[in-house]
Amino acid sequence: MTTRAMLLREAAISAAINAVLSIVFFILVFGTSVAPGLAALGQDFLPQAFMVSLMGSLVPALLMRRQLGGAIVPVVLRAIAFALLGAAIAGGAAYWLCALHGAATLPIAPALTVKALFGAVLGAIVAPLAVWPVIASARRA
After folding, report:
1. How confident is the model at residue 116, as a pLDDT?
2. Which residues contact residue 7 at a Cβ distance below 8 angstroms, ignoring those fewer than 6 apart?
3. For residues 83 and 61, is the Cβ–Cβ distance under 8 A?
4. What parts of the sequence cross the membrane (predicted)?
C-alpha cells in the first residue's frame, strides 16, 4: 500500500469514528429534547477538540507504529501536542464563532450535524498528520 493510500485510509477511519463519537457525546451532554444554547455548544467544542485531536492522532499512530516499528514516546508526545493545539485552534475558533451569536439556540438536528462534522473534519486532519512521521521514521530506519 502506498503512503498516500495509508494516510487517506487513516483519515477516513478517523473521520468516521470521530463523527460517531461526537454524536454519542452530544446526545449524552445535551440530550435530544431541548435546543442547546450556542454558549454551551461553544464551550463543548473545547473538550471535543482536545479529545478528537488526542485520540484521532494517538490511536492511528500507535497502531501504525506497532505495524512498522519505532519508539512510543515520540508518538505519545506528538499526540499530546496535537490535542493541545487542536483545543486551542479548532476548539477556540468554534467557541469564538458560537460566542459571536450570544444567547441564541440552535435546533437539535443542525447542532448535532455541526458537532459530527467538526469531529469528522478534525479527526481527518490530525490522523494523517500523526501517522506520517511514524511512516517516515520507519522508512529511514
Report:
1. 98
2. 128, 131, 132, 135
3. no
4. 12-39, 45-63, 75-96, 116-135
